[in-house]
Amino acid sequence: MADKPRITSAVLVEHEGKFLLAERNKKNYHGYWIIPGGGVKFGETIQEAAIREIKEETNLDVELIKQIGFKEIVNVPANYHSIIFFHLAKPKHLDIEAKEDVSKAKFLSIEEIKQIKSQEKLAESAEWALKELGVWDG
Questions:
Q1: Would you state the pLDDT for residue 30?
Q2: Domain for residue 32, yes or no?
Q3: Radius of gyration, alpha carbons of the chain
Q4: Does residue 138 form part of some domain?
Q5: What is the domain-level CATH number for residue 71?
Q6: Number of domains present in the structure of the chain
Q7: How far apart are CA 81 and CA 124, in angstroms?
Q8: Is residue 1 assigned to a domain?
Q9: Distance between CA atoms of 51 and 77, rounded to whole angstroms?
Q10: Structural domain boundaries, residue 105
Q11: Distance CA 32, CA 25 (A)
Q12: Buried b / exposed e across 53-88, counting CB within 10 Å, b at 16+?
């Protein structure tokens, strides 16, 4: 059983009006499309974790633009409690390679993301971040 919440950092990368999402291949939320990210290590800032995690999971080097906000997700039965800090970023290159905790990663339009939601394969936190950013209507 986890004894404390986990601090995580996620990066919503935007390029030409599309947003990078990744299909998760870990047990929790397997097969769902998420905003890539992961845990903040001791001694690492939330921003440093964001840059490291997006590189580890998608091979992208990014420039952080701003913090979108944070969301707390508590699921005690699944032994999951995270506080996720979401950032908006621009890619420094487009050489995407899904690695680590994701099986696919690609840039998607809002309409494509809504299609994923209609299939019930979109993480709630991804929709939340897009709404916070003001690019999701509905």
A1: 84
A2: yes
A3: 14
A4: no
A5: 3.90.79.10
A6: 1
A7: 15
A8: no
A9: 31
A10: 6-133
A11: 8
A12: bbbbbbebebebeeebebbebeeeeeeeebbbbbbb
**Model pLDDT, residue 76:** 86
Phi, psi for residue 118 in degrees, rounded to 5: -65, -25
Q: What is the mean pLDDT of each run of 10 residues along the chain (138 residues)?
A: 84 98 85 94 97 96 98 87 96 94 94 96 95 90
Longest dimension (CA), the chain: 42
Q: How long a stretch of residues is the chain? A: 138
| Residue 109 covered by a domain | yes
Structural contact between residues 78 and 110, judged by C-beta atoms closer than 8 angstroms = no
Cα–Cα distance for residue pair 104/91, rounded to 1 Å: 17
| Residue 97: φ, ψ to 5° | -145, 115
Tell me, what's the pLDDT at 1?
Answer: 47
* C-alpha–C-alpha distance, residues 134 and 68, integer Å: 10
> What distance lies between CA 88 and its chain's CA centroid?
10
| Tokens representing residue 23 in the block | 């299909």
Counting Cα atoms < 13 Å in the Cβ hemisphere of 53 gives 30
